[in-house]
Amino acid sequence: MNRLRDWLSGGLLIADGAWGTELQSRGLAPGSAPDAWNLDHPDLVEAVAAAYVAAGSEIILTNTFRANSLAMDGGLDAINRAGVELSKRAAAGRALVFASIGPTGKMLMAGEITEEQARAAFAAQAASLAAAGADALLIETMSDIDEARVAVAASKTTGLPVIASFAFDSGKHKDRTMMGATPEAVAGAMVEAGADGIGANCGAGIEYAASICRRLRAACDLPIWIKPNAGLPRMDETTIRYDTTPVLFASHYAALRDAGASFLGGCCGSTPDFIRALVKARCASN
Amino acid sequence: MPELETLHQAVIDGDWKGAAAATRAALDAGEPPLAIVTGCLVPAMDEVGRRFECEEYFVPEMLLSARAMKASMEILRPLLVATGAQPTGRVVIGTVKGDLHDIGKNLVASMLEGGGFEVIDLGADVAPERFIEAARTRNANLVALSALLTVTMTSMKTTIDAFHAAGLRGQVKIMVGGAPVTQQYADSIGADGYGESAGAAVALARRLVAA
């Protein structure tokens, strides 16, 4: 907890943007697992990390979102370790490395997996990420409070700061997770689970982020991680496009800061240009 | 018949024990199995779909309702088979190649079953050849493709192209859905339809098999 607060002592920190779309622009075939590239194309993964550091990210993530044993098979310890090592090398001390842990993709309440299976998968991933030297663990794009609770408990055994971030993309006002959880329910449960930070990433677009952030801020006093995506994807012939531009994205900077965001970055569809625009917006507002 | 009202409510409330008990009671009272499906389970799941659509229900509520519907169908299915009743349609469903997420696909599969379809679920990370093989051998009239990620949704196009190449495109309707998928994308890859939610998927499937 204190480490997160220490890092934030100078004010809001800028995180990175999307990885999946950046890897695709470097040749990752649609449909293949980005995480496997940590071993197959480490240079290209490092290039994405380096592009975010160069753009001004003070925190970068790792290409390990899917590398848990319930979401993919094979060589996961090596993939997770390499993910942290590549980001650390690109950061070269200029940025912190928060290691990404995504959902299992299976549903606890439907009985597809047991809590014990989920715990084991998260604990193994968290241990690999911590052993490779991650500065903190970021559990992201969660929709199920119960799964996140298990992930937080498993991650906390590493002793690293743990942030739990949810995707609010459902409901009439796009303020619920797919499982129907509200920001208030998420905040209450994550405080109880012992998370050091809380957040909202992905979701329905940046225009919904400030109100979700305000509600998280009102419901708890944990640092808040905000990484909205650049709108929803649109298909142009064979290219996936996002409608939100870096300038439009960064125009939400002040609203998000005032809503209580502690960390700000971009999710799906955002690029290093989005991060540059955020850094510029922060300069302009100081 | 009060048993059917109880069953209808049990499905909407996601009470599988109540649904199973009410199904048995309705059969004991002489209600024909097919009438229980078309007159009770299908409308109940339509209502669940409507509530999901209006965002009164979220995934957990829908899963509980699907489970209740399944508990009823498990009692009715052997009786339906014995009477030779035909399903609304036969659908092959799966998450496309490269995508391991199956939550959305499972929801749609449950809703389609509730809508009276015979569902052949191929699971996640399904290669185009497997969709083709299943559609051919099981004589399906509908194929449903799911993707959660922008990085995998392009496998939908590959799969549809493979149906063309296999000469099967004329025999099946193909519907697509999943978080990043839009109507515009569905149109651009030549899908026959796009469902925005699991509830919408059932209505779409009915339209496609009727067309």
How does this model look, in words?
- The complex is a heterodimer of chains A (286) and B (211).
- Chain A is of the alpha/beta class and 286 residues long.
- Chain A contains twelve helices and ten strands.
- Chain B is of the alpha/beta class and 211 residues long.
- Chain B has two domains: 2-83, Methionine synthase domain (Methyltransferase, Methionine Synthase (B12-binding Domains), Chain A, domain 1, Orthogonal Bundle); 90-210, Cobalamin-binding domain (Rossmann fold, 3-Layer(aba) Sandwich).
- Chain B is 59% helix and 10% strand.
- In chain B, helix 5 links the parallel strand 1 and strand 2.
- The longest helix of chain B is centred in the middle third of the chain and has 25 residues, at 59-83.
- Chains A and B meet through helix 2 and strand 8 of A and helix 4, helix 7 and helix 8 of B.
Q: In the CATH scheme, what's the topology name of the largest domain in chain B? A: Rossmann fold
Q: Determine the CATH superfamily of chain A.
A: Homocysteine-binding-like domain
| Helical proportion of chain A, percent range | 40-55%
**Span between termini of chain B:** 33 Å
Secondary-structure class of chain B: alpha/beta
Structural class of chain A: alpha/beta
Q: Please tell me what the overall shape of chain B is.
A: globular
Strand order in space, largest sheet of chain A = 1-10-7-6-5-4-3-2
Percentage of residues assigned to helices of chain B: 55-70%
Q: Quaternary arrangement of the chains shown?
A: heterodimer
Please state the second-level CATH architecture of chain A.
Answer: Alpha-Beta Barrel
- CATH domain class name of chain A: Alpha Beta
Which range does the strand content of chain B fall in?
A: 5-15%
Number of helices of chain B: 9
E-strand count of chain A: 10
- If you average the pLDDT of chain B, what whole number results? 91
**How far apart are the termini of chain A?**
26 Å
The parts of chain A where pLDDT drops under 50 for at least 5 residues are none
Based on CA atoms alone, the radius of gyration of chain B comes out at 17 Å
